[in-house]
Amino acid sequence: MERKPKVTQQAVDAACEELQQAGKNVSVNAVIAITGGSFSTVGAMVKTWRAEQQKKAAPAIDMPESITNAMYQATAVVWEAAASLANERIERVRTEAQDALEKSRLESSEYMDAIANLEQQLEKNRKSLASAEKRLSMTASEIAQLNTHKISLETRLADRDSELKQLREDYKKLQAELIAIAKTGKDKH
Predict the structure, then answer these.
(1) Is 85 a member of any domain?
(2) What is the domain extent for residue 43?
(3) Does residue 97 fall inside a structural domain?
(4) 96-109 tens-digit pLDDT
(5) Is residue 82 included in any domain, yes or no?
(6) Is 9 within 8 Å of 39 (Cβ atoms)?
(7) Model pTM greater than 0.70?
(8) CA Rg value for the chain
(9) How far apart are CA 113 and CA 110, in angstroms?
(10) HSE on the CB side for 95, CA within 13 Å?
(11) Which segments does the entry list as coiled coil (predicted)?
């Protein structure tokens, strides 16, 4: 079974024109006989064609000059009111924008002052840190010197302890010899 091609508005319009020129009644059934299609589809298209025909047939009405002038005047009044409202809104937005801009400038100025203060404090802190690092370096150097001196003193003390020990041993020997000499000299007398 072959499907019939879809009916288009152009085909229905052409069929309606053909029927009208032939002096026949433009009905949905008469159009379907020419174009094919369903009653609901073609019916809606015929209705559209009739509406277009009525628009074409409607006579143009000339407006009286007084109505035209009144329309122009009303349009001018409406335009003036709209322009006035728009200008008021523009001015309000401009004022709000200027206020916001001034507020932003003040905040920016405050921030810049705060940044300048922080930069000054940072510079002071850098100088203090440099000074502290210099003192730390000097202290470390002094500590190193003191450690060297301490080691030197400890070495000398160890040497003296060794000498003292040797002297004690020598003293004990001498004392023992002296006692021995004294005993020998007593025995001889």
Answers:
(1) no
(2) 9-57+92-187
(3) yes
(4) 999 999 999 999 99
(5) no
(6) no
(7) no
(8) 62
(9) 5
(10) 6
(11) 83-184
